[in-house]
Amino acid sequence: MTDFTTFLAPDHGQPARLIHVVHPDAFTEWLTQQPVRTRAAVAANKVTGRAGNRAILPGDAAEDWAMLLVCNEAESSPWRIASLGDGLPEGTYRLAHGEPGAAMLGWALAQHKFTRYRAADPQGPRVLLTGEPARIEEIVRLAEATALVRDLVDTGASDLGPAELEAIVEALATKHGATFSCVRGDVLADEYPMIHAVGRAAAKHRAPRLIELEWGDPAHPRIALVGKGVCFDSGGLDIKPSSGMRLMKKDMGGAAHMIALAGLVMAAKLKVRLHLLIPAVENAIAGDAFRPGDVLRTRQGLTVENTNTDAEGRLILADALTKAGEGSPELILDYATLTGAARVALGPDLPPVFANDDTLAADFLAAGAAVHDPMWRLPLWDGYDDMLKSDIADLVNAPDGGFAGAVTAALFLRRFVPKGVAWAHVDTFAWRPAAKPGRPRGGEALGLRAAWGVLKKRYG
Fold it and tell me: From the candidates 249, 314, 323, 343, which is the catalytic residue?
């Protein structure tokens, strides 16, 4: 893991190159106040004051230079100077005016590289100075959590199966003095029958499992974090086309988010009793794969007619949500790369949040807006509950017709959440299809910082 502590440092007046961040609306006025050599450098670099313009500004000596960035990002945005984080030479920098604040996160993340399969170019850190050293520790934690999600999602399924997810959670439990447990293989058939059904066709060393971690004072409010851990999704017997299977290493993105969030909770010592649950499977194809038309038992007792083996994520989440509810938590959060319908509705950047509690939903939206980790509320529309009816079982997992796919998936999950427990479900994409400053193409934490904001507000 990248050592993010090397990218940020307290400002004690040490030598550093300046970064001028100028809003397009203020550019003309700023330029008129600059010396002739600065105006000449701006002109030579064809800087017109448009967002994204940049230039090296000369100083008195050859090594004495500063950086100009024209930027229309809000001062509260973590991505305000992220485009410079991996584009400048190694060295020490400070903003010419003001404090970097939240922008420290983007600066640090821009220097993180996923290097499991390819070595990064050797280069020393770009250190950003801040007059707010008390903020560094949490920024580093957020960067580590975000990078963990990215790295887990970017890892190929050959190197990250259910057993590897188990090892990651066990290591996290050891680090924070938490209790770890795991139910694996055929034992699941009695205790967690839908997790077993979805994962039983995988090779023995990739057997399904329910991974659990518990931490904190039992006297504190109990919260449950549930993450979908489908380490690879072939679609099962309702097999995906090759184009649909290409990115299915990322189908454990919900688990990655909840593992990272659990780490933030424990590192900050929030006053909660934390329960992390990761149903981890590979949705494989073999002679004993679960079939379309099978009626599956659930841990809760309901029966589910399986109408689509490619709607497997909600099945394993249902058993995990049931187990979470047995602990009588006051709050349950689940994250899952659950439906393509959510992407059709809101695109790759904007995860929908479903909640059975208006206050909780409002908290998510407010937290996301505050930290530039946006979300959008979609409805748990009771009128669509009838779409889940089955002729032979209590409900189906995937209604015919394809209407409101993200909503009906959330309604399915709601059947397994205890009445009276505040619950939010986030259908995250966990992937960035095109790079942006500080955010490379690939695995991405979408909704992580918003969830952290919610938990901090409630329990911090």
Answer: 314
